[in-house]
Amino acid sequence: MKTIQDPAQPLTQEEGREIIGDILIYHMPFNRLLGIDLIRFEHNYAELQFFNQDKLMGNPVHKILHGGAIASVLDVAGVLICANSILAQMETITGNEIQKRLPTISTIDLRVDYLRPGRGEVFTVSSNFIRSGKKISVARIECHNEKQVHIASATGTYLVG
């Protein structure tokens, strides 16, 4: 986990992304419950991974993920990529600024299309920008299983400023 050594010290974009990713994925109790891992986090792309677990099943007979678990991880991936847009808005990136602005990000709308049942053992969720503005950002998010079967897609709209 990335720690902020000196909150007033200027950071690079990459260091800022590391801090944002760490806070959103590893410091939020619900996201830890989901078992999400951050695989990639770049300027315009984020990739998360999680495993099928008994506590996430909506249909234990068929071992299918609950739709709420899928939607939750899709939302986390959308928030993550849109949170990255706050870095572009900062003249100087510092830990203090990130800690001040990150709590202001919120989901306005999440539209999920469940394409297939959530079967599989390992799920990868990827997100990228559709639009990144000063106040609102929009992300496209997809979930695939380990066989590259497309499970769900979403469009998320987020308040970022």
Question: Would you write up a description of this structure?
Answer:
The chain has 161 residues and is α+β, with helices and mostly antiparallel strands. Helices cover 31% and strands 39% of the residues. It contains 4 helices and 10 strands. Strands 2-3-8-9-10-7 form a 6-stranded antiparallel sheet, covered by helices on one side. α1 (13-26) packs antiparallel against α3. The chain is elongated and about 50 Å long. The two termini are 26 Å apart. The mean pLDDT is 92.
Q: Secondary-structure map with pairings?
A:
Blueprint: E1 10-11, H1 13-26, H2 29-34, E2 37-42, E3 45-51, E4 57-59, E5 64-65, H3 67-89, E6 93-94, H4 95-101, E7 106-114, E8 122-132, E9 136-145, E10 150-159
Antiparallel strand pairs: 1-6, 2-3, 3-8, 4-5, 7-10, 8-9, 9-10
Number of strands: 10
Strand order of the largest sheet: 2-3-8-9-10-7
Global structural class: alpha+beta
End-to-end span in angstroms? Answer: 26 Å
Portion of residues within helices: 25-40%
List the main descriptive attributes of the protein structure presented here.
161 residues, alpha+beta, six-stranded antiparallel β-sheet, two-stranded antiparallel sheet, 10 strands, 31% helix
